């Protein structure tokens, strides 16, 4: 946590006093339980109390150096969990309050973590995969990371608005939240027929160097293209094959779980085709997702994944770099969320009808929590440039399956 005599603590305290001086004292009464939790963990002053945050790394003596990094730590018994043994013999954890939520602590070894960080930046955040920067800038085909490594002073030019292009209409003022109904096999055709014009580039963007632009990288698309303006997939662009490294890793995570022990007694509504968990070992096929690049001041607000036609198959989420607070609740924001501290190498699986449509978010990236095995450059000098970037970064790779196996979307 932030040390009270530190300059960061004093700065946060001054900012808190300034922003709350004239605040309505009753404002918190209108917050939903999920919103209240977000506010609690986002707060820089006073620093959030993590005693009610689940932190399973504290049970593992081999992760002591990770837990002590940054002085952020939760509790191993902050919420009810049930341990189980994975196929490989390691421990996984289920959450009785949220059927289908699985946590696999330290699922990735340090070497694999480094491999995925390099893959995310060097191989993936470039064409043909779209990134948030492509909307506003004319990025080189090698991608922003590789351009930065080659010459950080290289200037990237803004993308100009094309006068004859059809862009997504955007109303002036605050951004309107999109609250789509969940996709399913019945409404897929109507969703697919919705016009999905590109977002217009900003007219305020100025030329910028690679070194200044790199920290603004926020996401890179995986597989089927996601249209952020409508919060739907744009299948007209086709699908980029999932890289074998990610595909194999996600399938391995799903196959490591004995799903009979998770869902055998589940009586939830799995939709018109019934439960499909008994076939995931063979039929789970990830085909869409995103790589998120968080800086330590970034957040991901509460949301529900409604765009996938398959609302039950596993979503696999991989944490790399700095630790984060992950919140997951229920089908509305009125359910108080469970806070979980995720560290580098942890894998979360969201599966089944109760979990896949649950509100979730990341209100806080915990600063100065980069795992020691990601800071050591003595034995690997080439890692230095990645280490410098990851000092203030969390990378999250999350992958999912868009269509049920028995559903033919007719896209070929």
UniProtKB/TrEMBL annotation:
Pfam families: 2OG-FeII_Oxy_2 (PF13532). SUPFAM superfamilies: Clavaminate synthase-like. InterPro entries: Alkb, AlkB-like, AlkB-like_sf, Oxoglu/Fe-dep_dioxygenase_dom. Keywords: Dioxygenase, Iron, Metal-binding, Oxidoreductase. Signal peptide: none annotated. PROSITE patterns: FE2OG_OXY. Residues 285-403 form the Fe2OG dioxygenase domain. This is Fe2OG dioxygenase domain-containing protein. It comes from the Eukaryota. Its cofactor is Fe(2+). The keyword Disulfide bond does not apply.
């Amino acid at each position: 946590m932030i040390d009270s005599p530190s300059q960061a603590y004093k700065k946060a305290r001054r900012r808190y006093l300034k922003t709350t001086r004239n605040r309505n004292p009753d404002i918190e009464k209108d917050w939903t339980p999920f919103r209240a939790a977000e506010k609690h963990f986002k707060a820089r002053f006073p620093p959030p109390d993590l005693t009610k945050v689940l932190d399973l790394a504290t049970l593992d003596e081999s992760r002591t150096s990770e837990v002590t990094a940054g002085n952020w730590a939760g509790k191993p018994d902050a919420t009810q969990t049930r341990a189980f043994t994975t196929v490989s013999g390691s421990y996984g954890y289920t959450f009785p309050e949220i059927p289908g939520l699985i946590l696999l602590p330290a699922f990735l070894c340090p070497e694999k973590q480094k491999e995925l960080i390099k893959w995310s930046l060097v191989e993936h955040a470039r064409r043909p995969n779209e990134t948030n920067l492509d909307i506003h800038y004319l990025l080189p085909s090698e991608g922003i990371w590789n351009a930065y490594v080659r010459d950080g002073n290289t200037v990237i030019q803004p993308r100009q608005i094309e006068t004859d292009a059809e862009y997504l209409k955007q109303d002036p003022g605050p951004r309107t939240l999109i609250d789509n109904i969940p996709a399913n096999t019945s409404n897929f055709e109507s969703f697919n027929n919705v016009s999905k014009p590109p977002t217009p580039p900003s007219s305020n963007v100025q030329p910028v160097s690679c070194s200044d632009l790199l920290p603004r990288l926020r996401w890179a698309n995986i597989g089927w293209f996601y249209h952020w303006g409508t919060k739907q997939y744009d299948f007209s662009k086709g699908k980029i094959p999932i890289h074998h490294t990610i595909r194999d890793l996600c399938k391995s995570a799903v196959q490591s779980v004995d799903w009979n022990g998770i869902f055998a007694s589940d009586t939830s509504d799995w939709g018109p085709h019934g439960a499909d968990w008994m076939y995931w070992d063979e039929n789970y096929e990830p085909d869409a997702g995103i790589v998120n690049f968080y800086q330590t001041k970034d957040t991901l607000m509460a949301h529900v994944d409604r765009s996938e036609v398959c609302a039950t198959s596993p979503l696999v989420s991989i944490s790399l770099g700095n630790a984060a607070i992950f919140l997951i609740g229920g089908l509305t924001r009125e359910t108080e969320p469970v806070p979980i501290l995720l560290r580098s190498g942890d894998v979360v699986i969201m599966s089944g009808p109760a979990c896949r449509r649950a509100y979730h978010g990341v209100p806080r990236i915990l600063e100065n929590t980069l795992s020691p095995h990601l800071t050591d450059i003595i034995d690997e000098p080439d890692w230095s440039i990645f280490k410098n970037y990851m000092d203030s970064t969390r990378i999250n790779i999350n992958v999912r399956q868009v269509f049920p196996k028995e559903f033919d979307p007719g896209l070929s």
